[in-house]
Design a protein that fits this description.
The chain is mainly α. It has a domain of 60 residues. Helices cover 27% and strands 0% of the residues. The protein is built from two helices and no strands. The longest helix is centred in the middle third of the chain and has 25 residues. The termini are far apart. The relative contact order is 0.11.
Length: 112
């Protein structure tokens, strides 16, 4: 007896048998890069960087030729300001740089 065929699943006994050559088409491998920071952390870091830049711009405007400089809104990271009850929507964060008032306040022709 050359082989034990338990359920007809074993291959041929000949060690030189290669079978029918049939190449199977494969799609190219899709690689997804792995990041250290999660999407939420990236979003919060962008908000933090923009808040720092807004603060710097606010200080420049206070010292510069601007009239009626709009005060900075509460920081996104000031969690007490953004408290809300379960079932309610989280209060909207409005960055200072997106404010219409802060950009239209400067009139260069007035100062010349």
């Amino acid at each position: 007896m050359d082989k034990i065929d338990t359920q007809g699943m074993s291959g041929p006994v000949d060690p030189n048998y290669k079978g029918k050559p049939k190449a199977q088409p494969h799609k190219p491998w899709l690689c997804t890069p792995t990041r250290i920071l999660t999407e939420t952390m990236v979003k919060e870091l962008k908000i933090l960087i923009n808040e720092v830049l807004d603060e710097r711009e606010y200080k420049r405007r206070l010292e510069g030729p601007y009239d009626n400089v709009e005060p900075l809104p509460p920081s996104y990271f000031d969690t007490k300001h953004f408290q809300y009850y379960v079932g309610e929507e989280e209060p909207e964060y409005k960055p200072w740089s997106k404010s219409k008032k802060s950009k239209t306040d400067y009139n260069p022709s007035y100062y010349q």
